[in-house]
User: Fold this.
Amino acid sequence: MNSLAIPSPRGFDGVVQGVTLLDLIQMECLAMSTRAVRVEHSGRSGRIFFTGGQIVHAEVDALKGEPALFELLRWSAGSFIIEDGLRPLEDTIDRDWHTLVMAAAHVSDELAAANAASPSPMSPNPSPQPPANEALSDPEVQCAVRFTEDGSMIEAVGDIPEMLEASFAYVVQLLRHIGTSLGAENLCEIHVTGEQKKALCVLADGKITAVVGSPKLNLPALAKKLS
Amino acid sequence: MQTTLASLKDIPGVVGSFVLNPQGALVAKEMPAVYVDAIFPELGRRLVSVGEVLEQQTTSFQELLLKFEGSWLFVRRTTQCLLSVLVAETVNYPALRMATNVALKQLSDQLAAQPARAAAPVPAAVEAAPAPAAPVEVAPAKPRRMWRGQVIDW
Assistant:
């Protein structure tokens, strides 16, 4: 770890270099910490609060809760101050830290992919990148995510792609078991037709693409493009 | 119900089919003998879980088409049952959909009729029994045995 640590009356000040904020969060959670970490970057600052090793609150600018946490995790560099004894006025996060860290890791991967695509410095609110796969630009597509079998997100369109990824990662495992029971191997596609939405999942080359769209979505045509 | 499932085999490429109740328990099947009954409890549980995940995160499904290499599983859901049809990938899909439309209609009628029959009183047996000393709930003449969610000994 290359972070610089200087003792202070309130704890430690540090500069985040070579260690990500995600690493720091994991360390605080594993240490069952009850305190706050103030994070500063380009004149902005935010706080993440831990209670008994769980993330219970985050705030930055007007954001609170998970949106604030994910916003802080978008910062590619910055400094932190550990504030012992500081407790939040309210608890706005109730998800287990493991789940949050998983989701945050996806955000981080997404960010890395966006950075790779654009050499410009990360801005706090990066403009959305057009999906690499043109099929996902279909106007009937509401949300889509492409991820590897081991859970690394490659590409995302729409809101809460982490949730979509988690859902389809689980569904794929369940359906593979069902296939095995019936002597059917190598799940290639899942077509879902519902009253309000349609969904499609295509598995190819070790990657899984899950798409949710309007009832007008042409599943066979989209599947062909994604295969 | 067996007749309804057997009729699906009129479509070339249909390997077999089975019906689960909304909880995932096997109600009826018309599958080759190699698919033993023991596989269906786990299969049903997993299929119900798939439905729950999709309902929570994406969309409540009415149709689910699973494309495996060489074979597909086509699942259609109603409030009363899940009809699953295992087919070869060469199946005529529009014909399969139409056949399952008809099958679902028949299955719905049959399943809707079942609870009414199961709940029907057994007047002869009740009348023949001696009057109870205190008012009690009217019970069937003999304990009912259930098999795959259905009463089998009445």
